[in-house]
Amino acid sequence: MDTARFLLLISLGLVLTMIYTAWLKDYGPSGQTTSSSLETPVLQSDSVPFAEAPALDIEESGIPLSASKTEESEGEKIRVTTDVLDIEINTRGGTIEYAALKQYPVTKKNPTKKIMLLHRKSSDFFYVVQGGVLSKGNAITPETYFYVEKTNYAIENEDSITVPLYFNSEDGIKVTKNITFYKGQYVADIDYEINNQSQDNWTGRAYGEINRTKQKEQESRLLYTYTGAVISTPKNRYEKISFDDIDDEEEKVLADNGWAAMLQHYFLTALIPKEKEETYTYYTRKGSSKNYIVGAALPTKNIAPGEIIGFSHRAYFGPKTQKEIEKIAEGLSLTVDYGIFWFIAKPLYWLLDYINTFTKNWGWSIVLVTVFLKLLFYKLSAAGYRSMANMRRVQPRLIAIKERHKDDRAQLNKAMMDIYKKEKINPLGGCFPILVQIPVFISLYWVLLESVELRQAEFILWIDDLSIADPFFVLPLLMGITMFLQQKLNPAPMDPIQAKVMAVLPVVFTVFFAFFPAGLVLYWVANNVLSIVQQWAITRSIEKNTS
């Protein structure tokens, strides 16, 4: 197999690899979602159904429990604002039904329109954090009504603020649900205080759930990202459970540590236990309104008359900022999914992040990382370029041999191998630089696609977001030109069909890369420019020494 054919196969393989990532059915169903937004927190959600309580046992005997219901009406809305979050809590169930991320605009052109991660816009699409307490008697479910002291809270000079919600049952069970928010954080502590003022023992358990529906796909399939549930336990740190998986089978896992989450490209919502030494139940289930639920249930507790006991867990709703989420729960940083080449992607991200502390520009950081990679693989690339330069030097002789033995394939191959052996040329030596670039390219692709830190990151001039395609296609055109120039330094394919295909490849890749993130194309352009310089210097040196 000659170099041209190998290059062609590698190029086509690269294209197929990128296309394959867009068709990972096992990683997610057909209906994915993009982030939604509202300019104001005004919601019209009267028609949105609330989920029923989960069918979780409160004891090993397996006593089924039903939700306690009151009149069917909308609850009051509690508004909570911090420096990073705009929150609404419904007194019906104490459900967190709205969370806008104040530091993340949907687009740079309209900075007042923020990413709205949690919301209940309509009965067709909603995404909320709910929960409650299951017991033999009264249960706190998403349909239970709390009463509150006030409906507006804001963090100003304090570091945190707590929103209390109250529920008193007829038989003397008093429940206080405290939701605490923190300055500069996307975490909320959710605590239930159960005060047993009845004459009987109380047995129950608390639970939290992330409840959402699908939304019609709005993203390019070439920029596929996973949207769906994840359950993490010590035995399986990152188990994806797509909506289709939940349709097929509900899951239930017992673990002493872990978390449950819903992922949505750059953002996630997670439920994280606070007491790691206790056994929790993680589960998924399908609701009755085409909604999908992932939840975490805390261990069952018994309360004697006159005693007070509590349940606690945490909820996270925010960006997948790696430095922050890895501090919240073990393995939560795995939600930044770098794919099969994660062991390359993670160091690449670390290097990008480190360089960015000096450059303060992710674009220049990408260029400098490219320079670093070129230096790292300099000798390997040089060996490949020397092989291609030598192939180019002997190509006139190869063409003559091909013409002389055009009717005798066996003799042609023998004669070519004799030249390779005499000139000490490895015909596949030029393939090594390509082989080195492919895993790095795919790894950087996922780094740019998954790292929220690069979302809306500016470079220069017209490129104000490295995570999306170049709006004026300048970088893809430069990539095509540099690819064409690099081909001119390589030995031309002797087969006419291969030559035509190779000539078309720069055009094909230019069109293909026009839909890729600008940061990725920037890497490829920078890599091509450095490769051209290195290859030209080596080729010139070899031709000068043999002239």
In total, the number of domains comes to 2
End-to-end separation in angstroms reads: 28 Å
Q: Fraction of residues in helices?
A: 25-40%
CATH class identity of the largest domain: Mainly Beta
Low-confidence stretches: 1-9, 22-49, 58-72, 217-221
Task: Please tell me about this protein's structure.
By secondary structure, this protein is α+β, with helices and mostly antiparallel strands. The two termini are 28 Å apart. It has 11 helices and 20 strands. The chain has 2 domains: 3-20 and 346-546, no CATH class; 31-335, Beta-galactosidase, Chain A, domain 5 (Distorted Sandwich), CATH 2.70.98. Strands 1, 2, 3, 4, 5, 6, 7, 11, 14, 17, 18 and 19 form a 12-stranded mixed sheet that branches. Strands 8-9-10-20-16-15-12-13 form an 8-stranded antiparallel sheet. Residues 1-9, 22-49, 58-72 and 217-221 have low confidence and may be disordered. The protein is 35% helix and 26% strand.
